[in-house]
Amino acid sequence: MDPSPLFYQAGPALPEVSHAQGVYLWDENGRQYLDGCSGAISCNLGHGRDDIREAMLAQLDRVAFTYRTQFENAPAVALAKTLVGITQHQLEKVFFVSSGSEAVESALKLARQYFVVRGEPQCRRFVSLRPSYHGSTLGALGVTGYQPLEAPFRDIAIGSLKVAGPDFYRHDDADDNRHVARVLANTRAAIEAAGPDTIAAFVLEPVGGASTGARMLDRSYLTDIRALCDEFGCLLILDEVLTGIGRTGAWFAYQHYGVTPDLLSTAKGLGAGYYPVGAVLSRADIVETVMASGGFQHGHTYAGNPLACATGLAVVEAIERDKVLDNVVARGRQLAAGLEALKARFPWIGDVRGLGLLWGVELVADAATKAPFPAEQNRFARITALAREEGLLIYPRRTLDGMAGDHFLITPPLTIDAADTAELLTRLERAMQRFDRELA
Ligand code: PLP
């Protein structure tokens, strides 16, 4: 067989996908896989849906592409209104893009242009968490805190002031409240040292994604970060690329905490794997300020095209019609209980954390000390390979800033039913039994 010209990742050649339906995929050899991570936490409604297909075909028959400066298009307006409605009009303006990186990049640029227009050009820096993941383009990568991804590009990315967020698993403070208080005090000190008047925005994921293994923030932390942003006059950007559109059991994760951002980026689940579409949602006055100066100096060719927006609209309508958020809550409880039971059985499961259908499982060499496995053992890759052999796809990463530690995400489609959730747990248990035997 000719070698493939594709060079996405190092490692063994992958089998070709044949077809997919619901939460299952099949490869060219007839092997079946349960999609325990929705691809890259993106194929959120499962595969092969007739309702999305029909909406896309109907739009294709009318018009697939128009350029946003030449025509308004009905699906874009309808999807924007729907998203604004989801925020209960707290974020009233929408700018469409085609990926999560573009959504973050656009939010950073909107924040920056806002301050330039206001006559505050010194507001040019961003604050973000380490570890974090915000995307692969140079702006989004600049605010990302994950060493292997940053290293080759550190000198040319925009960079940001990186601060630690709360870590409710590994901290050694007296209790969680004192931990949050200490993290906030350190954050305040770092911003004060850097110069609060140079900061345009604080960017963070309301629940961590792949880089942290679903590390949770909490209400008091987010409330205080909101207050800190208001005190220092900088914007709060929430990156809901992964958590948005239902992943955590609310439309947006910020709605669990009662803390509203000034800007919000979302993508992945909006197109649900059927077509790339993402968005930046903004407070109205920010956009009005920027538009009064002659417009947002930014844009991408495919932004807000009719096919993308018709897909996004069909996805959001399906979530509403089928009461998918209720399913996320119910299946999330089932999954959490199953993962906790596995944790009680296997001593190398250090932590299970998450919300809705976004769960992280952290592996450790020693549960008492929380010491990670030696990095060169690549345990995160091994458990993923074993799960795959058992017919289950999971999403692995290194935990400690990308340098060591092991975790994986379990993030099945939001439409998974009780029987398939049980099957997911059974396949995971089989993989874990084999992993356990290898460690013995
Ligand atoms: N932000 C977060 C929180 C993400 O999880 C991701 C992707 O994993 C991105 C941004 C980048 O999205 P994309 O890969 O669509 O560019």
Automatic annotation (TrEMBL):
Keywords: Aminotransferase, Pyridoxal phosphate, Transferase. This is Aspartate aminotransferase family protein. One of its GO terms (molecular function) is transaminase activity. Belongs to the class-III pyridoxal-phosphate-dependent aminotransferase family. CDD domains: OAT_like (cd00610). Its cofactor is pyridoxal 5'-phosphate. InterPro entries: Aminotrans_3, Aminotrans_3_PPA_site, PyrdxlP-dep_Trfase, PyrdxlP-dep_Trfase_major, PyrdxlP-dep_Trfase_small. SUPFAM superfamilies: PLP-dependent transferases (SSF53383). It holds the Pfam family Aminotran_3.
